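User: Could you go from structure to sequence for me? I need the amino acid at each position, not a summary. Structure tokens:
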């Protein structure tokens, strides 16, 4: 009875965390805040969490589902994402889309699950590799960050945790996801190089900023006008 009670308490805790995070999903994409989409996200994330007890649901996973949702829903909803409404989405359509999104999310996360286990060692290892790569190719950036007292984890933790989805416009994120999946087992290596490329891209800006402005810059990169070409 005690183990059953503990299991129920764990499930309730997981559902509470999911229900808190889902309304924060993709804040710049109104469609994902439609009630039917929010409920769909809750179901997918809750089920994934209880089926993966080593990590459970972790804050940030809610954003990782959205590119899959957009791609699979595009089969049922014509036009651009910003013009979509959920009125034509039947229960059957949503159940099919949820199943596809769930298994795609599982495939994406299976190689990086240690990003979300206790103490998130996978994220810390990835951030270390980004710093190591930048040290070899753009040492001026590392030196400047050190002088300003900025640790790589302070800004790149979110980059890795959300695998950059919040750092680029949503349309570009879908293109990025396509490459993530195409890389297969090399996905973790690809992510390191993309994070390093972000820093190298803005080396001039980074070197010209001091602590406060630099932190603001790194936490909100000027990518709002990026499209697939970038």
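Assistant: Here is the amino acid at each position, in order:
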């Amino acid at each position: 009875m005690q183990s059953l009670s503990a299991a129920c308490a764990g499930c309730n805790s997981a559902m509470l965390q999911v229900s808190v995070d889902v309304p924060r999903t993709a804040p710049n994409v109104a469609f994902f805040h439609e009630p039917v989409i929010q409920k769909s996200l809750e179901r997918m994330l809750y089920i994934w969490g209880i089926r993966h007890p080593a990590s459970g649901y972790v804050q940030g996973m809610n954003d990782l589902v959205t590119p899959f949702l957009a791609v699979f829903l595009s089969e049922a909803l014509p036009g651009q994402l910003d013009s979509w409404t959920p009125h034509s989405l039947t229960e059957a359509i949503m159940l099919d889309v949820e199943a596809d999104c769930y298994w795609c999310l599982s495939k994406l996360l299976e190689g990086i699950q240690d990003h979300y286990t206790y103490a998130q060692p996978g994220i810390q290892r990835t951030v270390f590799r980004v710093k190591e790569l930048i040290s070899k190719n753009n040492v001026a950036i590392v030196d400047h960050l050190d002088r300003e007292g900025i640790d790589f984890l302070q800004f790149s933790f979110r980059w890795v945790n959300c695998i950059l989805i919040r750092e680029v416009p949503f349309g570009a994120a879908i293109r990025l996801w396509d490459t993530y999946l195409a890389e297969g087992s090399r996905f973790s290596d690809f992510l390191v190089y993309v994070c390093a490329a972000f820093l190298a891209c803005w080396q001039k800006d980074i070197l010209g900023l001091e602590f406060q402005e630099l932190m603001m810059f790194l936490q909100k990169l000027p990518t709002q006008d990026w499209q697939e070409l970038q």
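One structural detail worth keeping in mind: The chain has a mean pLDDT of 89.
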